[in-house]
């Protein structure tokens, strides 16, 4: 597992990736200008909602940019982070909401109840806040078994206790049989942001070190394995977990972390693209340094998936100032949820807004924002 000093030159950033900036030899056609590429068909020309609109990729961004943001307005909404940062009575609060429609309701390593807590708790943690209170809304389909509902509720309560958060209020609605899929859950949460903590992509600067807290792609593959009845030779369990404790450990080293994200829908690729676009920096990844478990790699190879785009529910990616990166990495590895944390790349001044990966063969590939979602209904 490479250390920071093994992966990057000390005190500098990478030159522009060779494939993007090379000067062609005489008689060789110039490389295409990737920065000038555009989609031939505007994504927002979709006349109806499709599954990809919920995937956390380009189609989701279109909904927010062209429908929701103009309709709702407001400076707070314009932050477009995992959680909104608001001030109330002199306190800085993180406020977030999320809805969970995963199918099946129970999967290796968790359930929709665990997701409903951990997903919102983690959104708050990405702002540096420890969740204090959650609301919980259940939308139930007529005919769902009470025993199933009880299992989900018990799992949700247990996850809340583990995360140190209280479910303070809630609501229940029932829809007619055939108009739902058993159980949908919405949770919203609030938490206090400590003084001196300012986590947002606009703080990212060239030279920041990119750290991921552990192996990627586990949750999405775990869901797919049970949904489709697939076996990959070894059990794959979701990484669903509350990350508040890990974030506290990182902030104890320094409050000067620049940005944190939990790469859920759209996977690591979507999270990095969003940060690159918002910060106006480029991101260079070392593809061989990205931790992909063999079982996930094998499953993705069989299914034709890229692990970079597969959802996670218990991992985070951090952009850390270079001078603090070694200490933060060591602190992450001291925590159970960060034991396999590693450096995977850095922010650069070249190709702003674009994420590229240096391959093991010495080439460079663009890691673009996904259009929709490879695996729908995974959270």
UniProtKB/TrEMBL annotation:
Matching CDD domains: HypE
Stretches assigned to the PurM-like C-terminal domain: 206-351
Domain PurM-like N-terminal: start-end pairs: 82-193
InterPro entries, per database record: HypE, PurM-like_C_dom, PurM-like_C_sf, PurM-like_N, PurM-like_N_sf
Region of interest called Disordered, as start-end residue ranges on this chain: 1-20
Organism domain of life: Bacteria
Family: Belongs to the HypE family.
Protein name according to UniProt: Hydrogenase expression/formation protein HypE
Organism expressing this protein natively: Kitasatospora kazusensis
Gene (UniProt): hypE_2
